[in-house]
Amino acid sequence: MKLSHFNFDLPKDLLAEYPSENRDEARLMVINRKEQTIEHKYFKDLINYFDEGDVMVLNNTKVFPARLFGNKEKTGARIEVFLLRELNAEQRLWDVLVDPARKIRIGNKLYFGDDESLVAEVIDNTTSRGRTLRFLYDGSYEEFRRKLKDLGETPLPKYIKRDVEPEDEDRYQTIYAKYEGAVAAPTAGLHFSKHLLKRLEINGINFAEITLHVGLGTFSPVEVEDLSKHKMDSEELSISTSACETVNGAKEKKRRVCAVGTTVMRALESSVSSEKTLNPYEGWTNKFIFPPYDFSIADCMVTNFHTPKSTLLMMVSAFTGHDLIKEAYQQAIKEKYQFYSYGDAMLIL
Question: Which positions are tagged coiled coil (predicted)?
């Protein structure tokens, strides 16, 4: 498969600027791979497709307010700093993206906040957009992290052109988010409401949680036609023994295992034993899944509608089958489904 196989025309008005009014009332396209059928439902209808003993695997990562705005010394130019990951807590070193990148060089200082009490110095240029910053702050590490949180805002994807609103703080976070570390939400999970989770639980559905801190690797554009040459950025991953027991127990009993989101699917496929069972894991993954690919753990998945040429679309195509996913996307455009982070969902059986 080549990059060009994943290109399609996506009308701009189908990129979701806002989430659906209620989490579980987004639309849900249901694709049955065996029957080759496509149905149109609502997300809360998900409950009708699962039975007692089935397992849903959730990514409990939590988005932190990763987007800061600072001013460059001397010129006062407004610079956006997107925090990617902490490199060294003691030295307060962070891997970041800056915009506009052309204005920022090694040695430049950036000032944050009305009182300019937080200062950052550029100490390394890692890529054309990426930089390493050392933050200078007169308080303890806890106070420094609090300051970052106070100054940061919810890192909505760039395609959303409006300003961040108070409701985004809540809605760009799954209701089961626990461990802070993601710079983007695992968006398939945004559709689960407390009510729907409770109903699934009452119906005997089991849940396993993994933690994959979504970085920009998931969203970095693929710039090579030959997909085997694309390198994914690594993302931090944790799979506990108890999550493995829940998943492997369900597989043993021939119950359904559903990956909620592409991040969960990547996590599961990053730690598979030779017997095709799930192993505990602590570390990083740069797993890139594209067709053809033989999946080992999950036999169904929930996902959103993805943008052209994205690694997420490639994974979903590998899972669904290229022709069927193409047809599904054509129908989604015709039926005016909403795409991307705040968009509608798809259940692939």
Answer: none
Q: What is the pLDDT of residues 297-341, one digit of tens each?
A: 999 999 999 999 999 999 999 999 999 999 999 999 999 999 999
Q: In CATH, what number does 3-63+168-348 get?
A: 3.40.1780.10
Measuring CA to CA, how many Å separate 349 from each of 7, 131, 197, 244, 313?
Answer: 24, 42, 19, 21, 16
- Per the prediction, the chain carries an average pLDDT of 93
**Residue 261 near residue 188, CB atoms below 8 Å:** yes
Nearest to 243 by CA among 61, 58, 63: 58
Ranges of residues in the chain whose predicted pLDDT is under 50: none
pLDDT score of 129? 57
Q: Where are the domains of the chain?
A: 3-63+168-348, 67-151
CA distance 157 to 307: 12
Angle formed by the axes of helices 311-320 and 322-334, nearest 10°: 120
Segments in the chain forming alpha helices (H): 141-151, 166-171, 194-202, 241-252, 262-269, 311-320, 322-334
State how far the Cα of 313 lies from the Cα of 303, in Å rounded to an integer: 10
Q: What's the Cα-to-Cα distance from 307 to each of 3, 167, 219, 281, 292, rounded to whole Å?
A: 13, 24, 10, 30, 20
What is the structure's pLDDT at 221? Answer: 80
Assigned CATH topology for domain 67-151 = Thrombin, subunit H (2.40.10)
Cβ atoms within 10 A of the Cβ of 238, count? 19
In this prediction the pTM is 0.91
